[in-house]
Design a protein that fits this description.
The complex is a heterodimer. Chain A is of the alpha+beta class. Chain A has nine helices and 21 strands. Helices cover 23% and strands 37% of the residues of chain A. In chain B, helix 1 runs parallel beside helix 5. Classes of the chains: A alpha+beta, B mainly alpha. Chain A binds chain B through residues 46, 48, 73-77, 79-81, 83, 85, 87, 89-91, 100-101, 104-105, 146-147, 150, and chain B through 117, 119-120, 122-130, 133, 137-138, 141-142.
Chain lengths: 358, 222
């Protein structure tokens, strides 16, 4: 898929949505906090809002070009849209909902058949029901199937899992992955959930206050946030001011408080010495003693300040001259018998110490 | 009840129902425009549509008489080209009832359309539906309860219309005499028993229409 968004300008209540982006990914996540303009961006692509200025091109076909007065009506855009509330038609049965978009695509062969979609999304048994009798997860799958049956070129999904609980989320994600893999439909996926993004998207656009803060492959964006705002969005637990004190053989030494950390320069501009040091909790290893040598560059003596359970993991707050969060599994925590006040060593590989210029 | 009375009841019910059906497409059109679009002069149309609710019905009747009379613009045209008149005929009754009950139909239908989530209409468009299909498959069915309630209110209003009807159509027994006109006339000539019989019928009809309408409108808002 190729989606070009140029000179997008849409005034919103608190700020202007201003976007310039070229999207090539099969599944592209639009990632950002609530109220960042993510939904508005989807609505622009779907043609449900008129922008002040915009050039939108999907697979070589211009959909909106305000400067030329061109605006393809929503129904001719070939863009499927699943809004956050799913918007199933309450007066129709599940089957009628599913077939709503199918009828009008008469002249061209549908991309996928009714039977196939119903089978893949496992909603065959629901087709005779009214939509008010469906559970949240069932509604979600019906809404997806309805959008797919209209044979869209691009599927717009607005936080499709936000209203579902964690357990249900985990059950729906495989269905979305199947749509991606079996039907090959391109998707723009609005979310503020890191887990969903990692599970489904290959590229992402980070949107903050209506502006694109960063774009790129998902893993790269997550591991190398472009600035502090993006980093705090990704819940990078530890963000500290630091100073680069040495640069030797492409290994940087950074002073944080009274401690020294080794880091890899990555995309850091050559002359920056004042930096933010970002360390994700899952990248921190907690060790009892560090007699056996290992490849990690950073070994920091630390005291455990507190332990808090988070599902299968335990969040360990460490003091090693500065505050550092670590995530370890329950099992490790029990086997190592970690308690507050214990002396331990925090181990961090140099590439996991991410630096952002200050 | 006499044959003449039955004729009056039958005529009133029939002409009220017909006027409601005739104003339905116009009422839905205006209600839809008011509910979904913004345009300059919208408040002017809103006011004009509501005028018959608050103006003296006799005044509305007089305006209609001037427009639809043989020397009026519309009345003259129909007389010259189609050879029929509105004034002092059942057609006059029909028009007087339609104009007087139009605001009630528009108000209920507008509320009903406004109650339809625009998101559902948008989604229908993303599924390839054009404006008419969206209207007939999404907006109209979802608003149908409120619209039906509005139709019943309009019908009930038409049953009781007096002022505009007597102005435009007069009170010709067997031709333009409706329930309310007949009640008035019975009282005028001192036949109170006849008046009360007709009164009972009109109360029963109005009660049923409004009650049903209230049921529909209340369930809609729940």
């Amino acid at each position: 898929m190729s989606l070009i968004l140029k000179n997008i300008l849409l005034p919103l209540a608190a700020f202007n949505l201003e976007v310039n982006a070229e999207i090539q990914g099969r599944v592209t996540a639009i990632f950002g906090p609530s109220g960042a303009g993510k939904t508005s961006l989807l609505e622009l692509v779907a043609g449900l809002r008129s922008p002040k200025s915009a050039f939108i091109e999907l697979n070589g076909r211009v959909l909106t070009d305000v400067s030329q007065g061109l605006f393809v009506p929503t129904r001719h855009r070939g863009v499927g849209y699943v809004p956050q509330d799913m918007a199933l038609f309450p007066h129709l049965t599940v089957r009628q909902n599913l077939c709503y978009g199918q009828k009008s695509g008469g002249d061209k062969a549908p991309l996928f058949t009714f039977d196939r979609i119903v089978e893949v999304l496992e909603i065959k048994s629901l087709t005779q029901r009214g939509v008010t009798e469906l559970s949240g997860g069932e509604k979600q799958r019906v809404a997806l199937a309805r959008a797919l049956l209209a044979s869209p070129v691009l599927l717009l999904l607005d936080e499709p899992l936000a209203s579902l609980d964690r357990k249900l989320k985990a059950r729906i994600i495989p269905y979305l992955a199947r749509i991606r893999d079996e039907f090959g439909v391109a998707m723009l996926y609005v979310t503020h959930d890191r887990f969903e993004t990692l599970a489904l998207a290959d590229e992402m656009i980070v949107l903050i206050d209506g502006k694109v803060a960063q774009t790129g492959p998902v893993r790269e964006v997550f591991s190398r946030p472009a600035n502090l705002q993006v980093a705090s969005l990704f819940t990078v637990e530890t963000i500290l001011p630091g100073r680069v004190v040495k640069n030797e053989n492409d290994l940087l030494t950074v002073a944080v408080g009274s401690s020294l950390l080794s880091a890899v320069p990555q995309a850091l501009p050559a002359n920056s010495s004042a930096v933010h040091v970002c360390i994700r909790a899952e990248d921190v290893v907690v060790a009892r003693d560090c007699d056996s040598p290992n490849s990690a560059r950073n070994h920091l003596p630390a005291i455990i300040e507190s332990l808090a359970r988070e599902g299968p993991l335990v969040r360990v707050e460490l003091n090693c001259g500065f505050n550092l969060s670590a995530l370890v599994t329950n099992q490790s925590c029990e086997e190592m018998n970690l308690k507050s006040g214990d002396n331990v060593t925090a181990v961090i590989k140099a590439p996991h110490v991410h630096l952002i210029p200050r | 009840m006499s044959a003449e009375e039955w004729q009056i009841i039958w005529f009133t019910a029939w002409v009220s129902a017909l006027s409601t059906i005739i104003i339905l497409p116009f009422g839905l059109g205006v209600a839809w425009l008011l509910a979904r679009f913004k345009w300059p002069g919208k408040s002017l149309l809103e006011t004009i549509v509501s005028l018959p609710l608050v103006m003296p019905p006799v005044a509305t009747g007089l305006i209609l008489l001037k427009i639809l009379g043989r020397r009026g613009a519309v009345g003259g045209f129909f007389h010259d080209h189609f050879g029929f008149d509105f004034v002092f005929t059942w057609r006059g009754v029909l028009i007087a009832l339609g104009v007087m009950s139009f605001p009630l139909l528009v108000r209920s239908s507008r509320l009903a359309f406004e109650g339809v989530d625009p998101r559902l209409e948008q989604i229908a468009r993303t599924l390839g539906a054009g404006d008419w299909r969206v209207f007939f498959t999404i907006s109209l069915p979802l608003a149908s309860r409120g619209i039906l309630g509005g139709m019943l209110l309009a019908f009930a209003r038409a049953l009781g219309e007096f002022g505009a009807t007597i102005m435009l159509a007069g009170n010709i027994p067997g031709q333009t005499s409706t329930l309310s006109l007949a009640i008035y006339q019975s009282v005028q000539i001192g036949q109170d028993a006849d008046a009360f019989r007709l009164l009972g019928v009109s109360v029963a009809l109005a009660f049923m229409a409004v009650w049903w309408s209230e049921c529909l409108l209340r369930r809609k808002t729940r």
